[in-house]
Design brief:
The complex is a heterodimer of chains A (439) and B (257). Chain A contains 15 helices and 21 strands. Chain A is of the alpha+beta class. In chain A, the strands form four sheets. In chain A, strands 3, 4, 5, 12, 17, 18, 19, 20 and 21 form a nine-stranded mixed sheet that branches. In chain A, strands 6, 7, 8, 9, 10 and 11 form a six-stranded mixed sheet that branches. In chain A, β9 (222-226) and β10 (232-240) form a beta hairpin. The mean pLDDT of chain A is 91. In chain B, α2 crosses α4 and α3 packs across α4 (163-176). Chain B has helices at 108-116, 124-138, 152-158, 163-176; strands at 2-25, 35-45, 49-54, 60-66, 70-83, 89-90, 140-141, 160-161, 181-188, 190-192, 195-201, 205-210, 215-216, 221-227, 236-241, 246-256. The model of chain B has no long low-confidence stretch (mean pLDDT 95). Chain B folds into two domains: 2-84 and 235-256, Sandwich (Immunoglobulin-like), CATH 2.60.40; 89-231, C8orf32 fold (Roll). Chain B is of the alpha+beta class. Chain B is globular, with a radius of gyration of 19 Å. Helix content of chain B is 18%, strand content 46%. The chains are: A alpha+beta (439), B alpha+beta (257).
Chain lengths: 439, 257
C-alpha cells in the first residue's frame, strides 16, 4: 500500500486534530496536564483472517465478562462453585455493593468494552487488559479516518479497507437496544474534561443529546433532561462519561460536585439504562483478569480463542514461588492502579529494590499480579524524516446490544520512547488509525 | 414479644433559603422475621416527589426532591412495631459482610488486640459475645469523643467512643476472627437519639448484639437499616443549593404499649 500521500499530509491532519480539540489528559506529580494526542500517519493494518480471529475471541471474552457481572451482582454461582476465590471479588475496590440486585435492562453491563491487546513476535494476539468502565478513544481513529479520506481519497478507493465510520450506527443501536423509553443522552463532566472532544463528537454522530450533569435531574424515580426552553424530557438511556464514584453523590462520593443525585435509584428500579453499568470495575480488575479464561470455560463451555499474557497470582502458593524466583524478568502490576501506573518491570530494579519487592509481594500477595514480558511486534512510526519502530498496542472496541459486535477498526497507541513498553496514552505517546482489510 | 410505639422526627432549619434539595432517607423500619412494622403516619415536607426504593443492602429508602426555596425541611415517621427479640433472623450469607471496609479496616493495634483475645465458645455467636464482653471491659463510652467520620482504628486508639464506634470495632474484630458481621442503625426503647449495634452471622442467619450496652438485642430494639458499616446505612442524606447554615433537631421515642 502506498502511504506516501498520507505521510505527506500528517502535519495538516495533526493541525486539524488540534483544532478539533483531540487531546488527552494526564496526571503527573499530582497535577493535571492536557496534551495533544499526536497522530501518526502509518496505520496498523489487520488482515481479514486476523480480524476474523480477533472478532471470535473478543466476542467470546466480552460475552463471558457480561455473564460474570450479572452473576457477581446476582447469584454468584462462579464463586460458590469455587472458580474464583470470593475475596478477589468482595475485597476489590471495583466491587460496588450498592449495585447488588440491580438488573440493568436486557442484562447488559458492559455495552462498550475496550479490550487492549498486543501482537507478539510469534504472531499471536495477547489480551493485556479489559476496560469495561468508560473506555475512551473510539473517536480518535474515527475522526482520523475522516481526515485521511480527505487527504488521500485514492488510498481508500484502491485498497480493501473496511469503512470504520459505522461506529456511530453501532453505538446508536447499542444504546437504543437498552433504551427504557426516552431520549438518548451522552453525559459529559464538561468542556474542561480532556475527553470533551470525544463526548461532543460521539453525541453529534449518534444524534444523542450532549448533557452536562446539571442538565439532568431525577423526579419521581425517573431521569429527565432539562432542555433549552426549560422543558423536561425523559431520558431512556444515558452514556455517562464520568466514573462510578462521581455518578451519584447521594450513593457514592458525597463530595462529588458533578453527578446526578439519586440516579442510582432510578437505575436500580429499571427506569433508565446506564452505559456502561455502574459496578463494572469488578470485572476489569487486574486480579480478576487472571480468571477471564476460566470464566469463558465456565459460562460458555468454550476454550478461549485469545490468550491472556502469561499471568501469575502470588495469591496461589505455586505462582508465588515462581514469581519470587523470576521477579527480575517479570512485570509486576498493582491491581488497584490503572492507566499504566503501578506497573513495575523487574529488570529495571536494583538488587535492593528487587528484595523489597519480593517482600511486598509475599506480604500483600492479593495486591499484585505478575506477568511475563511479551516480546511484541513493533510498528513503524514517522519520526522526523525517518521511519522508526516503536511499541504499540491495540484497543479494540466491542459493543454489546442485541448481539455482540467488534468495531472493524480500533485505537492503536504507540510509545514515543524507544525503550518503553508502556503504551497507555495516560503516559504520553500517540495514536494511529487501525485498518481492517476486507480481503 | 413486645408491642412498641415509635416516633422518629428530624427537622432541619436553614438560616437562609436553599433550593434544589435532594434527599434519601433510611428512617422507615421495614418488617422482617423479628419485627412486624405497621406505619401509622409518615410525612416528608416539603417534597415535590417521594419514592420508596430498596437499596443494595435490602433497606427501604425514601428518595425525593424539592425544587423551590425553603428554610425548613422535616420528616417524621410513626408506627407500631411488634418485636421478637433475641432470635436469629434466617438469611443466606452475603460474602460482603466478611471483608474489611473503610470504617472497619483493621489497624495494627486492632490486630494486636484481636490476637490477644482467645475465643473459646466454639461457635460464632458465643465467640462474638466474648468479643462484646472484652469491649465492655476495654472500651469506654464517652459522649462526643468521636464523630461520624471516625474509623474503628481511630476510636480504638483513644479507647473511647460512642455507639457507632463500639459497633465498628466489634465488626472489625468479628470479621478478623472469621465471624461475618454487619452494622445496624435503629431505635431503642426510651427517648433520645437513634442507636447503632451489630448483627453477627450465626451460620443460619443474623443475630443482634449491642456492644454499647453489653446486651443481646431483645424486643426493645427496632431496626431501621443495615450495611457493611455506618457509610452504607446513613439515615438521612441531603444535597441542596444554597450557602445556609443548618441546625438539625432529632426526636426519637420508643415506648411499650
Amino acid at each position: 500500500m502506498n502511504m506516501e500521500q498520507l505521510v505527506n499530509h500528517v502535519d495538516g491532519i495533526n493541525r486539524l486534530l488540534a483544532r478539533y480539540g483531540v487531546k488527552f489528559g494526564i496526571y503527573k506529580n499530582q497535577t493535571f496536564h492536557e496534551q495533544l494526542f499526536p497522530f501518526d500517519a502509518i496505520p496498523r493494518v489487520i488482515s481479514k483472517d486476523d480480524f476474523a480471529l480477533l472478532e471470535r475471541g473478543l466476542i467470546q471474552r466480552v460475552d463471558a465478562l457480561n455473564l460474570f457481572l450479572k452473576d457477581v451482582y446476582g447469584e454468584k454461582k462462579i464463586i460458590k462453585d469455587g472458580v474464583i476465590p470470593e475475596e478477589f471479588v468482595f475485597s476489590s475496590s471495583g466491587y460496588l455493593a450498592e449495585c447488588e440486585g440491580a438488573c440493568p435492562p436486557k442484562d447488559i453491563y458492559s455495552h462498550i468494552s475496550g479490550i487492549d491487546l498486543v501482537q507478539g513476535k510469534d504472531g499471536n494476539w495477547y489480551i493485556l487488559e479489559d476496560n469495561l468502565r468508560i473506555p475512551s478513544g473510539a473517536s480518535y481513529p474515527l475522526i482520523a479516518r475522516e481526515l485521511e479520506r480527505r487527504v488521500a481519497p485514492d488510498t481508500f478507493r484502491k485498497n480493501p479497507i473496511i469503512d470504520n465510520r459505522n461506529y456511530a450506527k453501532m453505538l446508536t443501536d447499542t444504546m437504543e437496544y437498552v433504551n427504557t423509553g426516552g431520549i438518548r443522552v451522552i453525559m459529559t463532566p464538561g468542556r474542561y474534561n480532556a475527553a470533551y472532544f470525544e463526548h461532543s463528537y460521539l453525541a453529534e454522530r449518534t444524534g444523542s443529546v450532549l448533557a452536562m450533569c446539571s442538565d439532568l435531574f431525577v423526579e419521581k424515580n425517573h431521569l429527565y433532561y432539562r432542555d433549552y426552553r426549560g422543558g423536561k424530557q425523559k431520558v431512556g438511556v444515558i452514556y455517562r462519561r464520568i466514573s462510578d464514584e462521581y455518578l451519584d453523590p447521594m450513593t457514592f462520593n458525597p463530595e462529588s460536585l458533578i453527578g446526578v443525585p439519586n440516579i442510582m435509584d432510578v437505575y436500580r428500579s429499571g427506569n433508565v439504562a446506564i452505559v456502561n453499568a455502574p459496578g463494572n470495575g469488578i470485572a476489569d480488575d487486574k486480579g480478576i483478569y487472571y480468571f477471564v479464561p476460566k470464566m469463558i470455560r465456565y459460562y460458555l463451555d468454550q476454550e478461549p480463542v485469545l490468550r491472556n499474557a502469561p499471568t501469575y497470582l502470588p495469591y496461589y502458593e505455586e505462582d508465588r514461588k515462581y514469581v519470587l524466583e523470576n521477579i527480575h524478568k517479570l512485570v509486576i502490576k498493582d491491581v488497584a492502579e490503572a492507566g499504566g501506573y503501578g506497573v513495575i518491570f523487574g529488570n529495571e530494579l536494583s538488587k535492593e529494590k528487587l528484595e523489597d519487592m519480593k517482600e511486598l509481594v509475599t506480604r500483600e500477595s492479593r495486591r499484585f499480579i505478575a506477568q511475563e514480558v511479551i516480546d511484541f511486534q513493533d510498528l513503524y512510526i514517522v519520526e522526523g524524516d525517518e521511519k522508526v519502530a516503536r511499541k504499540a498496542d491495540l484497543r479494540a472496541f466491542v459493543l454489546s446490544g442485541e448481539t455482540t459486535k467488534v468495531w472493524p477498526s480500533g485505537l492503536t497507541r504507540f510509545s514515543r520512547n524507544p525503550d518503553s513498553f508502556v503504551v497507555n496514552s495516560s503516559q504520553g505517546g500517540g495514536f494511529k488509525d487501525t485498518w481492517v482489510l476486507s480481503q | 414479644m413486645k408491642s412498641l410505639q415509635f416516633t422518629y422526627r428530624m427537622e432541619l432549619k436553614f438560616d437562609q433559603p436553599v433550593c434544589d434539595h435532594y434527599f434519601a432517607l433510611r428512617c422507615v423500619p421495614a418488617s422482617n422475621d423479628v419485627q412486624d412494622i405497621q406505619i401509622t403516619s409518615r410525612y416528608v415536607s416539603p417534597a415535590d416527589s417521594l419514592d420508596e426504593v430498596i437499596d443494595g443492602f435490602g433497606n427501604h429508602k425514601y428518595v425525593g426532591h424539592y425544587m423551590a426555596n425553603h428554610m425548613k425541611f422535616s420528616y417524621e415517621v410513626e408506627g407500631i412495631a411488634r418485636v421478637k427479640g433475641m432470635q436469629v433472623q434466617p438469611e443466606s450469607l452475603h460474602p460482603m459482610y466478611k471483608y474489611p471496609t473503610r470504617y472497619t479496616e483493621p489497624t495494627e493495634e486492632l490486630i494486636e488486640y484481636g490476637e490477644s483475645l482467645t475465643l473459646t465458645a466454639g461457635d460464632n455467636l458465643g465467640n462474638a459475645i466474648q468479643i462484646m464482653d472484652a469491649l465492655y471491659r476495654d472500651f469506654k463510652y464517652v459522649s462526643g469523643s468521636t464523630d461520624i467520620h471516625t474509623t474503628a482504628g481511630e476510636a480504638w486508639k483513644k479507647r473511647m467512643g460512642v455507639c457507632q464506634d463500639y459497633a465498628h470495632i466489634m465488626i472489625t474484630l468479628c470479621r478478623m476472627k472469621g465471624i461475618p458481621a454487619r452494622y445496624v442503625n435503629g431505635l431503642m426503647i426510651g427517648e433520645g437519639y437513634t442507636h447503632a449495634w451489630v448483627e453477627i452471622y450465626t451460620g443460619e442467619g443474623w443475630y443482634g448484639l449491642d456492644p454499647t450496652n453489653h446486651l443481646h438485642v431483645d424486643d426493645y430494639y427496632i431496626k431501621l437499616a443495615h450495611g457493611r458499616d455506618y457509610g452504607d446505612c446513613v439515615l438521612d442524606k441531603g444535597l441542596f443549593l444554597g450557602q445556609a447554615r443548618q441546625t438539625q433537631t432529632i426526636y426519637a421515642n420508643v415506648e411499650e404499649i
